Structures are given as C-alpha cells and as structure tokens.
Amino acid sequence: AFFKHQIHWFSIFNSFMMVMFLTGLVALILLRTLRKDYAKYSMGHDLELGGDEDEYDDDGKPLVPGPGTEESGWKQVHGDVFRAPRLLPLFAALLGTGWQLVVLTFGVILYACLGSLHGAVHEERGEVLHSILWCYVFSSIVAGYMSGSYFKRYYATTNPRGKSGSGSSDVPMPTGTSMWQATMFLTVVLLPTIMAAILSALNFISLVYGTISYIPFMVILKVFLIYIFMSVPLTIFGTLLGRHAKLAAGGKGKPAGEHFPCRVNAIPRPIPDEGVAWYGKPQNIVSFAGLLSFGSIFIELYYILTSLWNYKYYHVYGFLLGVYAILMIVVCMTTVIVVYFCLNAENYLWQWTAFASGASTAGYVFLYGVYYYIFKTGMNGFLQTSFYFGYMGLIALNLGLLCGTVGHFAASKFVRTIFQNVKVD
Fold first, then answer.
1. How far apart are alpha carbons 284 and 291 in whole angstroms?
2. Cβ(281)–Cβ(103) under 8 Å?
C-alpha cells in the first residue's frame, strides 16, 4: 500500500519530539534568561531610588553593571519596540491574507477529516477544489478584519514624516485615509493577483499544447464573478469592522486609547551595528528558524507531493491535521527565539523579522520540491516543468504567508508579555 500508517505515526512522533525539544529549549533559555533580565532591570530601577547595588545572579555575576558600563539588552528599546513596521499597509495586508490562509487550511483539512459525514473527498472529482474555493470566499472577512485591526493598532505609532520605523525624513507620509485605502486595496488584490497571473500563464501554456488541464473560459468567468461579488465585499466589510473595532488596552493601568504596554518615542532610536553577535543579526538566524519548521513536516510533505504529481489518493487527513498543528507550534517557538535574540541586540524592527522567520519555511519547501522533481519524478519538457514549478511556487507562496503570519502572532504575544512586566520610567 502507498500509505503505510506506520510511516505516518513515525512522522507524527518525530515531529512531536521536535516540539518537545523546542518547548524545553524555549523554557530553559528564555525563562531563565528573562528572569535574570527582570532581576537586573528591577535592580537598576531600585538603585535610582537609593537601593543597594551588591546583588548577584545565580552565576555570581553582578546584576547591575559597574560604573562606566553602558546598559544593554531588550529593555533599552522599550520606546521603539511598538513602533509601526515599515510599509505598514503592505504588512497589514500580508498578515490579513495570512490569517485567511490559516482559517482556510484548517477548514479544508477539517472538512476532509469529516468525510464519514459527507462522503470521502476523493469520491467526487474536484470536491477538494470546491471546498478550497468556498473556504477562501467565506474566510475573506477574516483577511479584512485582521488587516484593518492591525493597521488601526499601529497607525498611531507611525512618524508624521518619513517612513515608519526609520529615521527622520523631509518626505511627508501619506494621509491616514489614503493609507487605509491602500491597506484595503492590497488585502483585496494582493494574493488573487499573483495567483491569477501564474495560473493564467499556465492556462495559456496548456491551451497552446492542447492538454486536458486547460481551464475553459466559462469556468474562469464563474470564479471571477464569485470573487467580485462575494470575496471582495466580504474583505471590504471585514476591513471596516477591523477599522472600527475596539482594541484592548496595552496592559493594566493603561487607558483605553493606549494599545501597547510602552509608549512610543517621537524620535526613533538608532540601531547599533558594531559589537553585535552573529546571532543578533536577523539575516543570520532567520534561515535556521525555517529549517527547524521544515524538519517537522518533510516526511508528510513527501506523501503530499506524491499525491499531487504521481496520481495517488491522499486520504490520511487526520495525520495531516496533526502535522499542521505541530507545524504551527514549531513556527511559534522558533520565531520567539529569533525575535528575542534580535531584541537583545537592541534591534526593535522585529515585525518583519518575525514574519520572515516563519515564512522562511516556504523556501525549504520549494527547495525540497526541486529535489523531488529531479529525483522522484520522470517529468521533462517545457509543459511539465512549467506546471510543476508554477504550482510549487504557489504552494510555497501560500505556505510562506501562512507560517509568517503565525510566527508574527507568536512574536507579538511574546513582545507584549515581556514589556508588560518591566519597570519603565
């Protein structure tokens, strides 16, 4: 049999052990390190009030730096850590689309797992595609709401002049209304435009070669009408809901209008370039986060690709749901570690770093797709190659948006939690 459940149980067990290892690593490193950080920062705050400075940590090192030593660490960026990321409308649209894909993926897998109630999904041709289409349409409101609420939360922290998160500039930023419109527009068209362009190119190639995979014009028209009259209005409606949503306060004692634990400084703090360890630079550690995430799914990925390209039925959706949950956990753990290292290096531009850490998983999936094409398929010629890499590119793109969004979510919770518990003057 193609699908041997022992292999899938081994995949689940392998991924589960990786989750346990990462969970223990995060607990050991971050909790222990954060406890020392809190003790150091609290002692520094007490010294200003006339306290005793002869305090040491578990390793015998002084908690408070001596005279002439500059303080360093993640607390130093408390005035910038909640500054809006660069290209805020684009970033909000990416996160909104990512949340839509999270809901879509969970909905499709759950629908397939409930096959005993409505019949196995491979009993009727195109049933999986129909479920993907309708889950995408109805989850459009999620994309709009998440992008709108994220933009609302961070727009107040943008600089009145220059790019958000960067130094001062003489170029004024667009008005709030135009940025709202840009956020809504990008949420509506960003992913559909990219997918439509790639699928149109593949459909044209299929037409030229006269293959049965050619999509008729009437089918394309029906999908377009569903997108225009259902998906677009739901996205716009969701964005308006997010724009007018009541966001929670930043912490205890914070007024309702303040959405973050710390106030954002008017002038951005310079990010140090010298004396930063290699693991404090995002470009050095982002790829490692994706490698660990890929390691938790690569066994199941082989069976998924075999189902797609070697004409096998995939029917172990319960295992797929488990692997999906494990992937989400691993992405969260690795992203939190990456963001902590960057913040400790006083780099407060953590939003794009967190997104890239999760999204880097897609790069390894695409590279594995190249390996699979060379060694596991007998494909050749322009037609087969273009279809294979076209669809693998779409898979990697959507997976990158999904994992990047989940990683940013975990990093955001982590950052808010640690800065809620520090004493800031």
1. 13
2. no
